[in-house]
Amino acid sequence: MKSYSISEINEVIKGELIGTTTQRITGPEQLEKASKNQISFIGSSKYLKHWENSNACAVIVNDNLSIEPKDNCAIIKIKNADLAMAKILELFNPSPPEFSTNIHPTAVIDESAIIGENCKIGANCYVGKDAVLGKGVTLYPNVCVFDETIIGIPDFVS
Questions:
Q1: DSSP string, the chain
Q2: What pTM value is reported for the model?
């Protein structure tokens, strides 16, 4: 599981760090639902009332809002909390699954389908009649590509 210190997060969003937390931050969450290892944000004064009862160890706040620090909780003030939170969401975005083989043995591929170079087809995928997968297409597990569907640029098109 990915986790970051409050300093590492602040390096990404470049805000004004007020206070600190010893907690490693494991993900973002809504203020009311956050646990002690999560970060949240406040982009509007109407959400300030939720900070006092929140379990979040850190909060991103628009710099025009006034907020009181809490013990072992950090505040990062920034011009646009919404944009900062989008950057934080990217930090915690899970990596795509890795494939041990290009075509998983449980994939069902119609014999008329055309599969381009370097395609990866995950477990339990279905590729239908006359379907075409262009060069480098990846189908993650449990994807269905129905008959006569084209995904990507086919190898035979230049």
A1: ---B-HHHHHHHH--EEES---SPB-EE--TTT--TTEEEEE-SGGGGGGTTT---SEEEEETTS-----TT-EEEEES-HHHHHHHHHHHTPPPPPPPSSSB-TT-EE-TT-EE-TT-EE-TT-EE-TT-EE-TT-EE-TT-EE-TT-EES--TT--
A2: 0.69
